[in-house]
Write a structure and sequence with these properties.
With about 140 residues, the protein is α+β, with helices and mostly antiparallel strands. Helix content is about 40%, strand content about 35%. The protein has a 6-stranded mixed sheet with strand order 2-1-6-5-4-3, with helices on one face.
Length: about 140
């Protein structure tokens, strides 16, 4: 009986430690999205892009198809949102955060831009990967 209680206690500790780790990861991911929102609403696309993986392998899928690469993605943002009137005020509504593995998370949500030139919004799916100790967006499908 004593061994069974010890095993149950160890499993309980392991589950709690795993849940704490997962909660920490989710908080970091949500914090990154919050930082992006703040940067966007200040009109700072370069700071907004700090949440994206700085790699030629970054994938962004939008209404015009697939874009590969950090620089190209940033350039497209700057082209399409060239001033604060186009950028408006961003709101993210996270609908789901799903752990895929210790290294990957999948996030689904809604985005909305309140703008003087006309409001727009849509749905996004993001794939996050832990790279060098930081959660980074490696794939973004926004429509």
């Amino acid at each position: 009986m004593k061994h069974i209680l010890t095993v149950i206690a160890l499993i309980s500790c392991f589950c709690t430690a795993a849940q704490i780790k997962e909660n920490k990861d989710v908080k970091e991911i949500l914090g990154l999205l919050n930082s992006q929102t703040i940067a966007w609403n200040k009109g700072n696309i370069d700071s907004f892009m700090s949440g994206y993986w700085q790699s030629d392998s970054l994938m962004f899928i939008g209404k015009n198809g697939i874009t590969y690469g950090y620089d190209k993605t940033r350039d497209n943002y700057k082209k399409n949102y060239h001033d604060t009137a186009q950028m408006g005020q961003l709101t993210f509504n996270v609908l789901e955060v799903k752990k895929l593995s210790a290294e990957y998370y999948f996030v689904v949500g809604k985005w909305f831009l309140k703008r003087s030139v006309g409001d727009i919004g849509g749905i996004y799916t993001l794939v996050f990967r832990k790279i060098k100790g930081r959660w980074m967006i490696i794939a973004d499908h926004s429509s």
